[in-house]
Protein: fumarylacetoacetase
Organism: Koribacter versatilis
Amino acid sequence: MNETHDPKIKSWVASANAPDCDFPLQNLPFGVFRRKNDEGGGIGVAIGDQVFDVGAWVRDQGKSSAEFKLLTEKRLNRFLAAGPQIWSAARMALFNLLREDSPQREQVARYLDATANVEMEMPIDIGDYTDFYASVFHATNVGSMFRPDNPLLPNYKWVPIGYHGRASSVVASGAAVKRPSGQRKPPTADMPTFGPCAQLDYELEVGAVIGPGNALGETVPLRDAEKHIFGLCLLNDWSARDIQAWEYQPLGPFLAKNFVTTISPWLVTLEALEPYRRSAYKRPEGDPQPLPYLSDENDQQRGAFDVSLDAYLSTRKMRDEKIAPISLSHGSLRDMYWTFGQMLAHHASNGCNLQPGDLIGSGTVSGQSKHSRGCLLELSWRGTEPISLPSGETRKFLEDGDEVIFRGYAEREGQARIGFGECRGIVVG
Ligand SMILES: O=C(O)/C=C/C(=O)CC(=O)CC(=O)O
Ligand SMILES: [Ca+2]
Ligand SMILES: [Mg+2]
């Protein structure tokens, strides 16, 4: 911990000091923005309800040190590649510029824009995207629907299961989600048909963004794995369940999941989340101990990040009738069977090279309780238990006009609240 974690230090940006603010001085997430009036943009940092145009400030001030120079780029990849020391130095410098007693307050104030006046873009150019399956609760639930005889496959507790996703279709929050078409074959039908997905779903996940990578052929030991993670964001792995059920064997998800994936635009640094570590998920008695390359005392001691995750739904009718989005689920990243450290160490354990800006999905975050299930497949139990909405409507899966909203935050008595902002997408036909 350092001064940037001290909740007593306030910002001169008044909105950052509100108790329910996602972006207090202690957070300082990085993103890429564009002004709505077309007057440029670039790498920025969120503070309260403002965006600090860090790129422009660095350029105008003629700052030449590495931690600043890299923030004048169009995307965050090169900054991410620079590693934890540079990230920390930048964070400390930004903290000092924005703290209440900053002597540069007036000069910096000229580089702030209301978040309402900007649009967020993709923060990184994503080279590769991998999605894991790290919630044993999600895996057990999905398994019992797709494979009733064998819900949790025997490899689950040994291998952090994942599949290679598609980087080209990862979009920033707010982009429309076009309902995909594909092959579906209900169990009762003789043959498949091609047409619009009838079981469109979301998956509430957290994305980890890779900083420095590893060279091809080299591995990442678990004890060092977190040094390769810059930060976290919210991630929606939109999923076409009817397409998935028909196509996924034997090679896993393909067109059911690569039509679009949405991420929240602000990357919350691991450093900002440091005060929110808790003991990681405790394997029940009788579960195998992870193999040595997935087992490290320090990783265990560091624990998991206790990030609360909420999914909300707003239908077109609800918006027309001014009904607020309804909570579908509430869970925590802490409930995952595998840590991001283990997922990363596993990913690189065969020498596969990770690169700066790669995106790693946690897998759907579901907990033990019913209200912590992170997708409609689980919440409506494959459509057999429709969800009633305050508008009088019901949902088994998503309909056109439905908006899915994720929120994430870490909270703890006596600490600043570290929020993720939102990850949104509206389904269009
Ligand atoms: O159990 C299966 O066959 C597939 C489950 C998924 O939907 C895979 C996935 O995207 C992983 C996850 O989000 O946890
Ligand atoms: Ca997923
Ligand atoms: Mg996807």
